[in-house]
Write a structure and sequence with these properties.
- By secondary structure, the chain is an alpha/beta fold.
- The chain folds into 2 domains: about 240 residues, FAD/NAD(P)-binding domain (3-Layer(bba) Sandwich); about 170 residues, FAD/NAD(P)-binding domain (3-Layer(bba) Sandwich).
- The protein is about 30% helix and about 20% strand.
- Strands 1, 2, 3, 4, 5, 6, 17 and 18 form an 8-stranded mixed sheet that branches.
- A hairpin with a 4-residue loop joins strand 5 and strand 6.
- The longest helix is centred in the last third of the chain and has 22 residues.
- It is globular, with a radius of gyration of 23 Å.
Length: about 500
Amino acid sequence: MPSEMALPERVDTLLIGAGMSGIAMGYHLKQRGLEDFIIAEKSDGFGGVWRDNRYPGAGCDVPSHLYSFSFALKSDWSRKYALRDEILEYFETCAERFGLGSHLRAGIAVRSLTFDEGEGRWQARFADGRQTSARVVISAVGQLSEPFTPEIDGLSDFAGPVLHTARWDRSVKLGGQCVALIGNAASAIQLLPEVSERARELTVFQRTPNWIISKPDRAFTSVEKWAFAHIPGWQRLYRWGSFLIHELRYPALVRGSLASRFTRWTGRRKINKGIKDPDLRAKLMPDYSPGCKRILLSNDYFEVMQRENVRLVTDGIARVLPDGVETASGEIVPADTLIMATGFVTTEFLPTLEVTGADGRCLRDVWGASPRAYKGVAVAGFPKLFLLYGPNTNLGHNSIIFMVERQAEYVADKVSLIIDGGLKSLSVRPDAESRYNAELQTRLSKTVWAGDCPSWYKTADGVITQNWEGLAYRFARTLKRNDDGDWEAV
């Protein structure tokens, strides 16, 4: 098994993370004949967040044919928006198809990276104390890998099961239970239908209401699957059509645009039509621009929230008791099981890694509260360290896999330059990084993400660290431009 394979003392490339970014990166390294690499993965296999997220109803909000690699099209997706198990199987199949299993070292977590300027190599230390030396390090840990649990007084004293959506325990039975669901965003609305059917009572604790649009989901017919598999070019045309439709949604994320105002109007209309009770309707009506927080897709959310055994609480949580939750207004809500749908640690990037670069500088200190990178993939002063799905490479309107593929291609070219050219160091110039990010933040200030709403897209001081500021296609063009002058090589 890969997890039992020896860890080499020296390797050309250390790739951290075996999720979709790690698989894409492994594929592009092998395409360029760069075979001397290992993939260090803290869990027991490929899949990343799709391996970790096993909660009921887990799925993707991007169409299946678009949420897949351009170099590994799948003609037999079961439905337009695939669920978790099918997505995980797809990524595992890709890893096997491209021979990445022999590169995987599963069940080991990288804890620190230190750059040795004398050797021009990164020294990596793992959680079990072992070490390896790499010419290049590529982080593919993603933005949504470390679960976030808020500090709530009394949480550790709760007597029943406490489940986090990112660490779900399928052995816990919810039938006949009083369930308290803390959180009301993407993962919450996916698991709500199934949990509400199992639980005797379900109380949903909401901090901020969400804008919700319909999800055009359905199963693919056998005729459609046949066409994808047998009509030359049809699946790729279908995929590009889906990509262009999603690109057309970006104007709705520009502050003050006609598309943004129209999205607000249709969202309010949906709530007004879907919720009968005026008090519940008022609680579910957002007061911020659509897209400032992630817009959610659901066809049954409003129906579920009006079920007799479902209740919405917006008072806030004062503390958790051994057998329930006390609200800020003093009400005691009984609970047998707590579900934390509270998302991930998003704005820190590499939160579990201690990274020390040239001149002994710590990446966490360099970043401070607002991580940044050149084109989302490199940080000045940290030679031959590359990030996938790094700062400002997330999207609010299209498929992240498109973005990650472009980054993997870009990084693979840089790795080829390093390995084939025998470079001791390759680092982005500080002035190039500063210029890039100054321009980026100026453009981001014109988007709805700069609005006054709490979201995981930005830090506490208001800097948008997660999202790219325009069309996905424009990001691809940015990475394609010749930027040799922005790099220093030794």
